[in-house]
Each structure stands twice: as C-alpha cells, then as structure tokens.
Amino acid sequence: MTPDWIGAFFIGIVGAAHCMGMCGGIASLLSTNSSNHSISIPILYNLGRLISYCVIGAVIGGAISSIAEFSAINQALSWLRIVAALFMILLALYIGRWWHGLVYIERFGQNLWKYIAPAGQAFLPLKSPLYALPFGFIWGWLPCGLVYSILTWAAVSGSAVNGAFIMLAFGLGTFPAMLLVGFGATYLNKLKQSNVFRQAGAIAILAYGIYTLHQTITLLSAS
C-alpha cells in the first residue's frame, strides 16, 4: 500500500459529502422507487461506480506512463506530479469552501456527460437489482471536480495498475457514505457537512498537496 493510495482513500472519506450531493440523490432514488426494493441495489450501484473509477484510473495511468516512457522525456512524470499537487491544493480549497475553482473544471466534462447520461437513463426504472451495476458504472463518469483531482494522481502513478488502485482507494473512501445514503440514512451526511470535519480534512489535504509539491520540486532541482 502506497502513500498515494492512503491519501486517495482519505480524500474519499473527506469528500464524501460532495459525492452525496452529486450522486446521493440518484442512489436514494434507486432504493426507494425501484420496482424491486432490494438491499443489493445500493451495493451494486456503488460497485459499478467503483469499477468505473478503476477503469478510468487504469486507462489514464497506463496511457500517461506509456507516453512518458516512449517520448524519452526525462522526469516527465515528475513534472506531471507538480500538476497533481496543484490539483490537491485546489481540492483542499474546494472542500474547505475557501475557493470553488474546481467547479469550473467540472464544466469541461459536461459536454461529454450529455452523451453518456442517456445510456444510464435507459436502465431506469430498474427491472432487476442487477441493472444497478451497469447503471452505477455509467454514473461513475458524472463530471466531478473531486474525481478529476484524484485522476491527476492516477495519471502520474506510473502504471495502469497503480492508477486503478488509486481510484479504487478513493472510491472505497466514498463507499460507506454513498451506501448509507442509498438506504436513506441522513446522520452521516450531517457529519460530513460539519464545518469542523470539513475544515480539518481540507487542511490535511492542503498540507499533503504542499508537501508533494515541495518534494517534487526538490527532486527536480537536485537532478
């Protein structure tokens, strides 16, 4: 287990409130309005979401590492890691509600999402709990600044496997909150919306982003 995996998992926990705001409504709707009220629906929905994260993490991580290797550009991944560190800082500002710049980044994904969304809507209403799996997979591509930030980590992970595991760790961090909201729980959302919890998480992410930025710049300067 690498520090990046642990960091991604922690960000998933802290950022779960954002996920509940983005996807929680549809997760709750699946459980309450499905023709088949099954405990498996939220589980399969979130499992599909995690699979989609792993796929995009593997694709991005593998593609960037291959480009860096075949381009023969020395320290290409280190330079990209600076970008990832900057995204961590932006994410901390967003979670702490100090600056909402990530909202503008989310808008870049809206054009693609309008073509993907109909594929997910075709599964509604769910004819079977199993339909929640592909529905969750599609909904995992919903434009989200939080996901985009973690994808920058996957991009500089050095391989498709590491990219997939970083995204999986992030998804697992969001899993408990998203699963509970699928069952209609609300008390966890109150915790996530707690100003103390949010500020503490944002400060921790900001510190990690600054630390990563400093370490990367130091390594580049020494080489």
From TrEMBL:
<feature type="transmembrane region" description="Helical">
    <location>
        <begin position="130"/>
        <end position="151"/>
    </location>
</feature>
<feature type="transmembrane region" description="Helical">
    <location>
        <begin position="79"/>
        <end position="99"/>
    </location>
</feature>
<feature type="domain" description="Urease accessory protein UreH-like transmembrane">
    <location>
        <begin position="8"/>
        <end position="211"/>
    </location>
</feature>
<keyword id="KW-1133">Transmembrane helix</keyword>
<dbReference type="InterPro" id="IPR039447">
    <property type="entry name" value="UreH-like_TM_dom"/>
</dbReference>
<feature type="transmembrane region" description="Helical">
    <location>
        <begin position="200"/>
        <end position="222"/>
    </location>
</feature>
<feature type="transmembrane region" description="Helical">
    <location>
        <begin position="50"/>
        <end position="73"/>
    </location>
</feature>
<feature type="transmembrane region" description="Helical">
    <location>
        <begin position="163"/>
        <end position="188"/>
    </location>
</feature>
<protein>
    <submittedName>
        <fullName>Cytochrome biogenesis protein</fullName>
    </submittedName>
</protein>
<keyword id="KW-0472">Membrane</keyword>
<feature type="transmembrane region" description="Helical">
    <location>
        <begin position="6"/>
        <end position="30"/>
    </location>
</feature>
<keyword id="KW-0812">Transmembrane</keyword>
<dbReference type="Pfam" id="PF13386">
    <property type="entry name" value="DsbD_2"/>
</dbReference>
